[in-house]
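Sequence and structure are no longer studied apart. As an example, we show below a sequence and the tokens encoding its fold:
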Amino acid sequence: MDARGIRAVWAVALLGAAGATLGEEPAREGSNVFTLGEVSVTGTPDPRAAATEESVSQEEMRRFDSSTLFEAANLVPGVTLSRVGARNEYMLFLRGLDIKHVPIYLDGIPIYVPYDGYPDLGRFFTYDLSELVISKGLTSVLYGPNTMGGAINMVSRRPAQPVEGDVGARVATGTTYDLWGNAGSGHELWYGQAGVSLEHSDGFRLPADFTSRPSEDGGERNNSYHRDWKASAKVGWTPVPGDEYALSFSYQHGVKGTPPYAGYDLKDNQVRYWRWPFWDKESLYFTSHTQLGEASYLKVRLYHDIFNNSLWSYDDATYTTITRKYAFRSYYYDYTDGGSIEVGTTLLPRNDLKAAFHVKDDVHREHNLPLPLAHFEDRIYSLGLEDTVHLLSSLSAVAGVSYDALDTVEAKDTNKFDPTTGTYAGAEKGNTDAWNPQLGLYWTAPTGGVAHAGVARKSRLPSIKDRYSYRLGTAEPNPDLKAERATNYEVGYEDKLAGVVKAAATGFYHDITDFILLTNVGGGLTQNQNVGKVHQQGVELEASAPLGTLAELGANYTYVHSQNLSSSLKLTGIPDHKVMGYARLTPFGGLSLLASAEYDSRRYSSTDGLDRAGGYLLVNAKLGWEPLARLNLEVGVENLFDRLYAIDDGYPEAGRTFFAEARYEF
């Protein structure tokens, strides 16, 4: 974003601050949810909140030991976990679409990495979050671009009491420990919130029946260590009811190893000796809500997001020298500057009208020593308009449309280096755009249940990597790539059966065109092209119920079937079936017993279908005790039966893991 653009967005923010008037307080009374960080909860109640959005509360994250975004998202039907074993990165699919189609947000601020849109979800802690909101096929156009498969928003805390917070510690097998603490103070005119968390692990242990391989001898998984810590802070001003202005900061630092390939297909899978000296993410952002009279509002977000990381490839398993042809030192220094303005009004009878404008500059700078720094920059715009029309007391329609555009500001051809000038030649610049209309209908039954049906035309703009990567000399860039497109259909119903059992069912279908696929262009090279046509269909089912006052049961099921109609290549990483269930008992004396299980069917790990990760069933259990009010002590075991399994073929996961945890809330 140039200087004039930044000044314009700040001017609107200051104008919103100057226009403060009496109105409805955005924060929910008695809640520590930072409502400024939510996207769709403004004005009148949004019917999507019950139908196409699912949230994981802070309490649920702690109950199911979900310390990372990766683990918390897995609790939601429609989500299946994925693993890029060669990079030791945790990913996910939402209804069969991966996270480059399902962007990640922090308090409504996009934080997906500029280069390829693939943040490592295992690096994002949940200890300082109030909730995780996952929006599916009919995602609001107010989020901005690239929500082809949905959106995931991490919502931070906002203190509601003069003094509140929590501290905790957890130890686990593998010299692993977590420490965390959060403290906040909320008052009539201001509030402050701060948190810190860290995780240290020397590595995880493999299941006992793992068979030794040339690159892995069993026991503690080779090179599986990681160290992560995060600090966050927020200060807010609430001059009058309805107006809120907050400045937030988040910083996280990580180092990790990448366990080497430990499968049998050494012909097609290279054993890599990789380590990440640093993986750092930093976000500074301003959010505001200004009430304009009793029926209108102005919401502003401004942000500066930094992502720096380094990857070193070593000669061998000693991790001491970097001299061979395949060894390297690579550094990324990326950042994003951006902002958004949202306005809404209910002045029109039966209408809740909203509009949002987003602009962001994505800058990617890569430095592969000893070559010089290569600079890439994209500018992305999005304009969205949405109207919630209350047709009847029990029937609402949400209609929206957005326009997204991408312009390449700067690009380098990293295959054309001039040694006399020490610089890369400029690469061809491209651009693309897309319109995204959608319509949803929501009906509230006399029983209180909600039925919905809708269709959305969604898109994803190609990333810098999609257009300009040579893929280590195996591919040709394609600056003229266009946006991927999907028409998403869904229908669903949720209700409380017999006033006790909360149940929901949703069916969905994706008709995807212009899907970006690597295509053989001759000479042993491939190129990303908009040649793919993909169909995905599936079902989500979920139910939960208390059994008296002493027990609770819950389960969900996800079915996703993907078809690549363009070629015989398989879509990797997506199991057809996933089932999760749990049972919680609270017999007496502050005791609780929680048992949970997850089954995933097999999935393809290679596009030719030859490598597959087998299906698996995992069982976890833990015992909790609350000896004093707000003091929780727990002991438990994950992967109770020490199951040998992999999410990505050749990269086995942890075996039986014991843990103990203490947590105190104040």
Summary: Residues 1-29 have pLDDT under 50 and may be disordered. Residues 100 and 333 are 19 Å apart (CA to CA). Residues 3-665 form a domain with the Maltoporin; Chain A fold (CATH 2.40.170.20).
